[in-house]
Amino acid sequence: MLPSVSTSADHPTGHAPIAGDSCGLERRIGLRSAVLFNMLEMIGVGPFITLPLVIAAAGYRLSVWAWVLGAAIAIADGLVWAELGAAFPRAGGSYAFLREIYGPKGAGNWLSFLYVWQVGFTAPLSIASGCIGLSGFLAVFWPSLDAAPIAALPAIHYANFAAAAACLLVTVLLYRNISSIARMAWVLFAGVLAALTGVIVSGFAHAAATGGWHMPAAPPLSALGQIGALGGLAQATLLATYCYWGYYNICFLAGEVRRPERTIPHAILLSVLFVSGFYILMNLAALPSLGDAASHAGQSAALRFQLVADIARSAFGPWAGYTIAALIVWTAFASVFSLQLGYSRVPYAAARDGNYFRFLGAVHPKHGIPHRSLVALGVVGAFFCFFSLTQVITLLVITRILLQFFLQQFGVIYLRVRKPDLPRPFRMPLYPLPPLFAMAGFGFLLVYRVHAVKELAVAAGIAVSGTLLYLFRAHRLRQWPFASAPIANPQP
After folding, report:
1. In sequence order, what DSSP letters do the residues of 207-260 get, joined into one string?
2. Residues 51-78: what's their mean pLDDT?
3. CB burial readout 130-155, b (16+ within 10 A) else e
4. H/E run at residue 460
5. pLDDT bracket for residue 303 (50, 70, 90)
6. Residue 76 vs residues 83, 119, 161, 390: alpha-carbon distances, Å
7. What is the pLDDT at residue 63?
């Protein structure tokens, strides 16, 4: 079994060289820690909040299939990340991929800038979603968090301030070297496993006490309802896909991974397999207990937070409900911890390339971390904690699919054609089926949505504004497409 982090004996100077990247980060992350960082981001507060929504959207019979389909999409897309991550093991993940795929002196310069621009929105939104969910479960212990302290702003509650405080606390805890962070992550992961196990055991225990596990009777559907079931499955799969996201987190830390050509692909696939098993078991365990309550979950955010804790309360008493709620708060905090750790490397990598604000390209002289990028991300994430959870999740999902995932899925095929001899330490099996299946799966999620046009317009607005900013900057710096063409055979 590989150690989670290297010791000073591995690198006497304390710093390992990073091929293709002079950023000065240390390669200390092994396979176990890589899987850990992925799973910490994947298993946040999302599954505990969205579980009743998945059941309500897809129905009892199809809800499990939403998790299965989401896992299949995650594996297909994960193979894309694995091939690119092994070929370009650099800090920044998608930023490095897009820059290399489409050419650092060509369209890759634009698309990588556009990616960092949208990360400036979606990364803090992801962090905020975890913190908002965390504060929602804190309200189980302190109902007064739902009160509004500012009469002129009734939409802002004490829970928003609690979420922002959690975001800033994570920033403080991450302000240390990667070895210390890895040790802290293992402690957080113990609570994550306890939360998942508690919900699964509570669900099956409650079912056993009420006559054994059985599938709740599904209401009869009209012909129109049967047609709409496909849309319900798409909505449920979108929620499940959001809960799976994070299997690629290790790619953002690739500049700090030992043996990245092996560690990154293994970490991605193992984390998806482990987490999908937990999610499917949790769905099966919760089905008999949720009953008709799942159909009302979309009407009340407070109800969504209570349902999972109520399963444990029904099985083992009030103390179990509070224990599960506390463990879910712990899990949400752990997810934000891993999420902010990974995404803080993106603006940093772009700044080091001169393709973003140079101020963010600094490395802490003692801890060896991109501290300015980390703090900036934490502050913006705290600001987004004052939005609603629904707004946060919807915007980040649609924007990422269009401006990140599609570009990489098409790009891995384009790169195979453009550079067939490029060294690829990991080559995905069944090529090109995985990227094609991933694109089809994400397309299915985008099309079968009630407000698809409105949400696509928001993502398009981010893309247009980022492109205009890039063109202004590129014209000033004489970069693509304004760079002067080299003169062939110049005269002496």
Report:
1. HHHTTS--PPPPPP--HHHHHHHHHHHHHHHHHHHHHHTTTTHHHHTGGGBSSH
2. 88
3. bbbbbbbbbbbeeeebeeeeeeeeee
4. helix 452-477
5. low
6. 11, 22, 38, 27
7. 86
User: Which residue type occupies 192?
Assistant: V
In the block, residue with structure tokens 């993502």: 459
316, two tokens: 């083992």
What one-letter code names the amino acid at 12? P
Question: Using CA atoms, how far apart are residues 347 and 121, in angstroms rounded to an integer?
Answer: 12
| Helix count and strand count (H, E) for the chain | 18, 0
- Residue 392 in tokens: 């946060």
Query: What is the band of 1 on the pLDDT scale with cuts at 50, 70, 90?
Result: very low
Which residue has better confidence, 355 or 222? Answer: 355
Q: Is the pTM of this model over 0.90?
A: no
All structural domains of the chain, each given as residue ranges with its CATH number in brackets, are 31-216+236-477 (1.20.1740.10)
Tell me: pLDDT of 20 over 80. no
CB distance 195 to 330 below 8 Å: yes
User: What tokens appear for 10 in the block?
Assistant: 């591995």
Question: What whole-number distance in Å separates Cα of residue 224 and Cα of residue 232?
Answer: 12
